[in-house]
Design goal:
38% of the residues lie in helices and 9% in strands. The chain is of the alpha/beta class.
Amino acid sequence: MLRADVCPLYQPIGETEFANGVAAMSASGIYGEARVGAGIVGFADLMQGEAIVQVLEQHISRAGGTTAAGGRFCGVRQSLTWDSDASLLNPLYPTSKNMMESHAFRAGFAQLEGLGLSFEGWVFFHQLPMLATLARDFPAIPIVLNHCGGVVGIANYENYRDEVFQVWRRGIQEIAKCQNVMVKLSGLGMRLGGFGFERLERAPSSIELATAWEPWVDVCLSAFGADRCMYGSNFPVDKGSYSYGVGLNALKRMTGGASLDEKRKIFAESATTFYRLPGWLITGATPDVWE
């Protein structure tokens, strides 16, 4: 839903307009009790430096304000994924090896603080130290580490699962020391992870998913704690590997030993806090929902 009548820099504002319209329909109550789109994360090219503030202000305006101020806009996502193997990259979102260290990006990133916005950090596992540096340099900007920290198990990494795990774990433990960072338990169904579920003739069960993912999810839970871990579906991208319900059930299996309070945080409260959503969105939940 990119706008066609503006320059490319402003086109993503159309996505916020569309999402806000869907959210308004949901808020009417006509379509049931769910409140879809209570928080909207939009794209903005932070490589534009300080000039990006005008785009961010337009996103906020089209969503009725920030979530902290009673509106729906809460943050920005811009891919930072980079690798020397171009086959791992999305050409629609160009990046560079030193993007997070560049003056232009950091000037744009700094604008988030004054506007009360968060950032979605999508990096590959070997970039975690660079994202940790960014988080330390901007401690007032909330960052969510997307997709369990960018596990890669294909292309040049296909036969180095143990080595990738060790590098990834050290990166997770380092970035978890940054109190402004949360991690999103999501994205392990992507082909990038190298788990191979998308190649199976039969879709995997939640038990099979949990068995494959548990070592990675356990590290995230141990490093960040339940109050800084949030569930994410990554749908429809992960749909190529499993169904929505099966993926959710897999995470429920992996958190089966957690307390009721920890489950509430992982599956609802951590995200509500991070995105500054109204608390009433989850006040109706009963204990059996999280068991």
